[in-house]
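Input sequence (297 aa), recorded before submission:
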Amino acid sequence: MEKASKLWRLLKVFTLIEGKPGIGANELSECCEVSLRTIYRDVYLLKLAGIPIYYQQGYRISPEFFLPPVQFDLTEMLSLVMGAEILSRQKGTPFQRGVESAMEKIYAVLPTGIREAAHREAVHFSPAWEPTVDYEKRLPLLELLEKGVEENRSVVISYHSLSRDEVTERTVDPYGFLFRSNAWYLVGYCHLRGEIKIFKVDRIMEAELLEKTFQPPEDFSIRDYMGDAWQVLRGESRQVVVRFSPQVAPYVKECIWHFSQRCQDCEDGGAILTFRVSGLSEICSWLMAFGGEAEVL
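Predicted structure, token format:
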């Protein structure tokens, strides 16, 4: 999530400078609704990307520079349409607004033939609908948390823990976001617990952005932190081997349930699936749905 919004803002900064040579940092800050520090960082990132921005009574872009046009064929366009439909279901998140705005801009510059063909062919495809959380009422909260991630600023949150059925107030250094089980989670260092924790966004009752800044670990990666987790809960890494009966094996083999999955067919039509997971509670809940058709070896 944080990457998507940052990209849209960088594009907006570029467009503002290109369309109004000499625009100042204060005006860019107001238009993008971010701090001056964020604008300075964005301009620096654009320069690192090779865009010749210079300052002369405001920000300007060298007139010799231009962005080359991008051409899409029908297959590429359909892929974007399908991806946009999935992201547009993230109600109340920056993804929803960003992807809808992006698709409007893409459609506006597409050749008529490709645009009409994309509209015509799109009716033949429909991504599966999955239950998702509606974040419409939590958009201000999401934007506040996202700002904390981008600017490395701590936040104070009131968090409702379902396991203990209590609300606690804690200071968190937000590192980034995680999307699992059709919901968004905040990953960050919790000063109350003294360790990195995962917080479900829709259980954050209130949040306040602090002026206090933090330096995230240079080698921290959410992907590495989650490791072999089945979904959200982490734990000791273990190998899990399960035999599925011939009745359910065809269904089980249709999907890749975990990136570590390995499958071995049995002579009777069953299947043995092997996983490497950290934490057993979530995979156990999944296996229980199969009842006696699944046997842990």
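Checked by second reader. The chain is about 40% helix and 25% strand.
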